[in-house]
Structures are given as structure tokens and as C-alpha cells.
What does this fold into?
Amino acid sequence: MSLRRRPSPAQLEALYAQAWWTADRDRAGVRAVLKHSDLIATAWQGRTLAGFARVSTDFAYRAVLWDVIVRSDLRRSGLGTRIVRAVLDDPRLAGVESFWLFTTDKQAFYRRFGFRAYPRNVMVWRRRVPPGP
Ligand SMILES: CC(C)(COP(=O)(O)OP(=O)(O)OC[C@H]1O[C@@H](n2cnc3c(N)ncnc32)[C@H](O)[C@@H]1OP(=O)(O)O)[C@@H](O)C(=O)NCCC(=O)NCCS
It folds into this structure.
């Protein structure tokens, strides 16, 4: 587990290929993610990226957890739990009062940490963005 060690764009792109909402992210997008995320948590198996999560935060009030992904052959062995726990326990986020996340079907996984659904509070504005050059 590391909250300092950053994956290379190629390593993250390979992991992103294993989750449905990240599978089509390209190298430029992955570079932007690595450059602009405020906090990155990684799990490693030797030099191989085994798991990943990232956070957007002001380090004072709010944090949003994005892209929690464990390598498909390593799932259900506690790695995802360790990654999310490490983010919630990071001393840099100790003053943050609420962590937000979006999930389509992993509510049961997040409930174990104490996350609760607030369906009436969340609004999202979306648009279709054409692929880059
Ligand atoms: C969701 C994910 C990150 C969980 O990581 P993981 O390492 O497999 O999780 P853990 O082994 O720490 O699981 C802990 C517990 O969470 C629950 N859990 C794990 N995966 C789950 C799933 N797919 N659905 C429902 N509950 C799940 C289980 O209760 C599990 O305990 P168990 O030992 O009784 O099986 C991982 O399955 C993954 O990468 N999935 C694909 C990407 C994804 O959907 N990410 C979440 C985006 S919101």
C-alpha cells in the first residue's frame, strides 16, 4: 500500500482497462488524471500495479473518491478494503468531514466502511464530449 508511489501512465492505463467506466481512457487522459489528482493510493505486487484509487479534495472540508479498482485476478482478497481504508485514514485528510463517491453497483462494498447513500442530495450535469484529436 502506498499513498506516495505513483504509477506510470502505462501501468494505470492497463488497470483502467479492467473497469467498465475507465476502459476507454487514453494515454493523454490518464496523464491528466495522474497530474491533477490530489491524492493517489496504490497497491503493488512487486512492480505490478495491483490496485488504485484517487481523491479530489480541498484537504479541509470535502473529498471525492474516484476510480477504486483492483486487478481482476486479485479481487476478493482484501486489497480494495485496504486501499479505501488507507485513503480514509490518511492524516492529510484528517480534517475532511465528508467523503463522496459514485457507484453503480458496489454499494455493499462501501457500506462496510460506513458510506451511506444520499439519493436526494446528489445532482449531476453531464454532456457528451467528442473524442480528442
Ligand atoms: C470493488 C473492488 C474495488 C473491491 O475490491 P476487492 O479487493 O475485491 O474487495 P475486498 O476483497 O476488500 O472485499 C471486501 C468485501 O467487500 C465486498 N465486496 C467486494 N467486492 C464486491 C462486489 N463486487 N460486490 C459486492 N460486494 C463486494 C465483499 O463483502 C467483500 O468481502 P468478502 O470477503 O465477504 O467477499 C473490486 O472488486 C474492483 O476493482 N471491482 C471493479 C471496479 C469497481 O467496480 N470498482 C468500484 C467502483 S465504485
Remarks:
- The chain has one domain: 9-111.
- The CA atoms of residues 102 and 124 lie 10 Å apart.
- The longest strand covers residues 48-57.
